[in-house]
Protein: Glyoxalase/bleomycin resistance/extradiol dioxygenase family protein
Amino acid sequence: MITKIGELMLYVNDLDQSATFWTEKIGFTQLAEHNKGGMRWINIAPTSTTETQFVLHDKKQIAAMHPEVPLATPALLFYTKDIQKLHEALFNKGIPVGDIVEMGGSLTFNFPDPDGNYFAVKNS
Structure:
């Protein structure tokens, strides 16, 4: 039986640019950086105590080593307690945020990462 989601793999074009985006612009914490066997990857999460982490991997390296692995970014929905504040903070950091809209009784907006993948945020 699966008991939790541990890591979500995000395959990115530029590890350093992506890590900087998630930590400096979005406010995630970098938990670890690994260099093993010619591979480099970076673990990040919203906080240091969050159970589920993102693992940033170099997309070209994964494609070369494991061509069977789908490299598409999953559709992810983040939660926040203050959607207006987060929306304004991301906008002020130069992130092209979508408008806040009501969907199914909740407020939501989206934003892209440096690779052009869109992520959604919902008021919790």
Remarks:
- Strands lie at 7-12, 29-36, 39-45, 53-58, 77-80, 101-103, 106-112, 118-123.
- The mean pLDDT is 96.
